[in-house]
Design goal:
By secondary structure, the protein is α/β, with parallel strands linked by helices. The protein has 2 domains: 11-152, Rossmann fold (3-Layer(aba) Sandwich), CATH 3.40.50; 159-214, Winged helix-like DNA-binding domain superfamily/Winged helix DNA-binding domain (Arc Repressor Mutant, subunit A, Orthogonal Bundle). It is 46% helix and 14% strand. It has 9 helices and 6 strands; from the N terminus they run βαββαβαβαβααααα. The chain has helices at 20-31, 71-84, 100-109, 120-131, 139-152, 161-171, 176-183, 187-201, 206-214; strands spanning 11-17, 36-43, 64-69, 90-94, 113-115, 136-137. Strands 2-1-3-4-5-6 form a 6-stranded parallel sheet, sandwiched between helices. Helix 4 (120-131) links the parallel strand 5 (113-115) and strand 6 (136-137). The longest helix has 15 residues, at 187-201. The protein is globular, with a radius of gyration of 19 Å.
Amino acid sequence: MATDAGGAAPIGVASLVSNEMEDEGLLAVIRSTPDMVVRCHTIMTHVPPGLSSFQLCDWDLVEVIVMILPTSIVEDAVSTFIQAMPHIPLVAAINSPWSGPDIVRIIQEGAAALTTSMRANVIVNMMRLAYYHAGAVDLDMSQSAIRTVMALGPHTTSLNALDREIWSLVAKGYSNAQISAMLGISLSRTKHRIKHIFRYLDVHHRTQAIKLYDENRNPLPPPNHLPN
C-alpha cells in the first residue's frame, strides 16, 4: 500500500454518488488530500440487490465508505452496505431535503457520520472522524433528530413506511422471499427489516406479530404524522 510523506498509509475510500458532477468533484477532492486514496468509485441511482454492481471494488483495501445520495435511496443504501460490510465505517452526505425522522432512521441503521454539507472540507473531515471511530453528525441535523425523538418518542421513529408494508404482508402470510419479490428489495434487507419490526413490537415469532396486526393493535401513527 502506498504511503504519504509522513510514512502512514493513506485511508482507502470507496465513493458512491448520485451523478457525474458529484463523482468528479469528490474524486478531485479525495485525490488532492494527502492522507486519502480512492479505492473505487461509482454513480449509484438505486440500491442493487446483493451489491452485485460493486464486485470490481477491492473491498479489502477500503477503510471508509462515503455516500452522496438523495433521501429517496440513502437509508436503504446505508442499511445494505452496513449489513454487507459492518466493519467499514460509512459517511452519508445527503444531497436533498431531509426530515428529522429520516436522520434518526439513518443513525439507527448505523451510519458513522452524517452531513448535508456539500463542502469538500466538511465531507473530508467527516471521513476522517468515521475512520478514527469518532463519528459526527451536523449540528443542524442533530437538533432536528433530537426534536423528532422528543416530539414522537423513540418508538414512533423506529419503523418507517417500508416496515409498515412488510408487517402487513407478514400478517397476510407471505414468506420472506415473497415479500422481497413483491417489494423489490433484497432478501437480506427483508429479513433485517422483519427482525427490526419484531424488536419494535417486542415479539419473537410471526404468529405474535400477526396477532397484534389482526387485533388492530397497531401502535404506529399514520405515516409522516407529527403532533400539533
